[in-house]
């Protein structure tokens, strides 16, 4: 398109069609290959220094280079046995929806630019708000790039709603020791430094201790500070635990604080028969919900939902003179009035498209499979000698460690790290470590709708075999 030769467009069309076939072939065979495709250091160095040619190259060559030398390498987070971090088992339907949205490349910042697309996104936000139990008359939201941006957007709205500007320097926020780091990062970005971020301890089930929260708020008020937000988690990244949302809401109501719920991972449970796990979420002021996690969307797609649209408008509505032609209706709310972005892709379309094709029931079945996978993993672990379940199956997660006799705590940390590395090197499954209660533990987060019981149990059996081998090597 950016060349005067129109024949180039035909070349691009042919290459695109070929690429789609290649991609589907890759996806068909992905889970019989390794979970990670690691390039050599020399290959990386060579790619980094390939440079930019003065004259353009043959399209075919560059496509081949992209496919073979570049994009094929990395963690295959959509592999059926990738169980690290929060995996990204992308639905092919989402990918197609993404292609359609990207193909038309609508500027989705304003209603005028894509009226029907906006109607789809608005309707979808309304549907998601209803799932969260937010009031239909006032609730609203926006699509953003990910959980970090959703949390960031929420915390700006929280600050602007609760505090006068002269109090920003005294602002205090409350998280738990299990809250995702993107929240502290967002707080720092809005000027709430670590010295004014209170980390409330969790109980034995990794849930925020509400009594400690209430005491911390009281102490901060007594010290002349300005508490403004509590960040509760609905599905922590480490263990899938859900904070006591109803109790936290009561504290927030009593203290006049904003309640933000980080449901980047766990909010998808609202679409399933396990939705009661999130009881009390309807009392929150805002909720982050990632579609590129447990709704199987391509990156990047996340929602921030709020109880009251005015709170987003207060923080983000801006009316530059050069956009007034698109804002002649004073009551019109454009997406750019509801979040930090001006130009934005139509992120909600692919999620709508996916839900249209799968239906609510199809989506619920896929999410619920994650619960079953975690239970199978826990069941297998409980039959495995020397395996300790540190945090039982919650949502799609289970945390555990191998603790054979005769090794010190430090050695056990080393052992479990080695077990993860052995598994990654084998290519069979992606299982990584995290830390709980000061100990290194192995963590499974299994949300791929096509992972089988056999694969789940085999993953645990292989981990146990590595643990035996490595423990023997460490003792030797
Ligand atoms: C609970 C939670 N919040 C926020 C995030 C950050 O989301 P993102 O990576 O989409 O920015 C994550 C990521 O794993 C998460 O698990």
What does this structure look like?
It is a single chain. By secondary structure, this protein is of the alpha/beta class. It is built from 14 helices and 13 strands. The chain has a domain at 106-344: Aspartate Aminotransferase, domain 2. A 7-stranded mixed beta sheet has the order 3-9-8-7-6-4-5, with helices on both faces. A 4-stranded antiparallel beta sheet has the order 10-11-13-12. A two-stranded antiparallel ribbon has the order 1-2. The longest helix is centred in the C-terminal third of the chain and has 36 residues, at 347-382. The relative contact order is 0.13. The protein is 45% helix and 14% strand. Pyridoxal-5'-phosphate (PLP) binds at residues 86, 146-148, 180, 182, 237, 262, 264-265, 290, 302.
Briefly summarize what is shown.
Helix content is 45%, strand content 14%.
How do the strands and helices of this protein lay out in sequence?
Elements: H1 7-29, E1 36-37, H2 41-48, H3 59-71, E2 74-75, H4 92-104, H5 115-132, E3 140-144, H6 147-162, E4 171-176, H7 181-189, E5 197-200, H8 210-222, E6 226-233, H9 245-255, E7 258-262, E8 286-290, H10 291-294, E9 302-306, H11 309-316, H12 347-382, E10 387-394, E11 397-402, H13 409-426, E12 432-436, E13 439-445, H14 453-475
Parallel strand pairs: 4-5, 4-6, 6-7, 7-8
Antiparallel strand pairs: 1-2, 3-9, 8-9, 10-11, 11-13, 12-13
Helix pairs in contact: 4-12, 5-12, 6-7, 6-11, 8-9, 12-14, 13-14
The structure holds pyridoxal-5'-phosphate.
């Amino acid at each position: 398109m950016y060349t005067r030769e129109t024949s180039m467009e035909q070349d691009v069309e042919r290459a695109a069609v070929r690429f789609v076939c290649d991609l589907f072939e890759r996806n068909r065979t992905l889970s019989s290959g390794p979970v990670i495709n690691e390039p050599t250091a020399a290959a990386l160095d060579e790619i980094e220094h390939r440079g930019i040619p003065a004259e353009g190259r043959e399209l075919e060559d560059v496509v081949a280079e992209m496919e073979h030398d570049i994009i094929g390498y990395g963690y295959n987070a959509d592999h059926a046995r990738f169980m690290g971090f929060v995996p990204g088992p992308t639905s092919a339907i989402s990918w197609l929806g993404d292609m359609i949205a990207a193909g038309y490349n609508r500027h989705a910042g304003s209603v005028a630019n894509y009226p029907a697309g906006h109607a789809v996104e608005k309707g979808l936000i309304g549907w998601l708000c209803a799932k969260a139990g937010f009031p239909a008359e006032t609730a609203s939201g926006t699509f953003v790039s990910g959980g970090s941006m959703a949390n960031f957007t929420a915390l700006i709205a929280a600050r602007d709603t609760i505090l006068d500007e002269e109090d920003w320097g005294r602002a205090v926020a409350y998280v738990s020791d299990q809250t995702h780091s993107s929240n502290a990062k967002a707080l720092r970005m809005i000027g709430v430094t670590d010295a004014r971020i209170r980390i409330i301890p969790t109980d034995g089930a990794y849930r925020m201790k509400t009594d400690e929260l209430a005491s911390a708020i009281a102490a901060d008020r007594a010290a002349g500070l300005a508490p403004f937000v509590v960040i509760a988690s609905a599905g922590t990244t480490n263990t899938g635990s859900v904070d006591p949302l109803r109790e936290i809401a009561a504290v927030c109501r009593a203290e006049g604080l904003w309640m933000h719920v980080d449901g980047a991972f766990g909010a998808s449970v609202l679409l399933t028969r396990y939705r009661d796990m999130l009881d009390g979420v309807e009392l929150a002021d805002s909720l982050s919900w990632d579609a590129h996690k447990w709704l199987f969307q391509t990156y990047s797609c996340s929602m921030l939902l709020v109880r009251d649209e005015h709170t987003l408008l207060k923080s983000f509505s801006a009316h530059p003179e050069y956009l007034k032609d698109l804002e002649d209706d004073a009551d019109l709310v454009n997406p750019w009035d509801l979040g930090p972005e001006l130009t934005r892709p139509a992120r909600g379309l692919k999620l709508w498209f996916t839900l249209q094709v799968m239906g609510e029931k199809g989506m619920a079945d896929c999410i619920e499979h994650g619960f079953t996978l975690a239970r199978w993993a826990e069941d297998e672990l409980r039959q495995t000698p020397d395996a300790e379940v540190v945090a039982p199956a919650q949502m799609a997660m289970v945390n555990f460690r191998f603790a054979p006799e005769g090794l010190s705590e430090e050695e056990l940390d080393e052992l479990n790290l080695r077990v993860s590395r052995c598994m990654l090197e084998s290519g069979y499954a992606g299982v990584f470590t995290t830390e709980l209660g000061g100990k290194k533990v192995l963590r499974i987060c299994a949300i791929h709708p096509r992972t089988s019981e056999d694969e789940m149990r085999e993953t645990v059996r292989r981990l146990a075999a590595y643990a035996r081998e490595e423990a023997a090597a460490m003792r030797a």
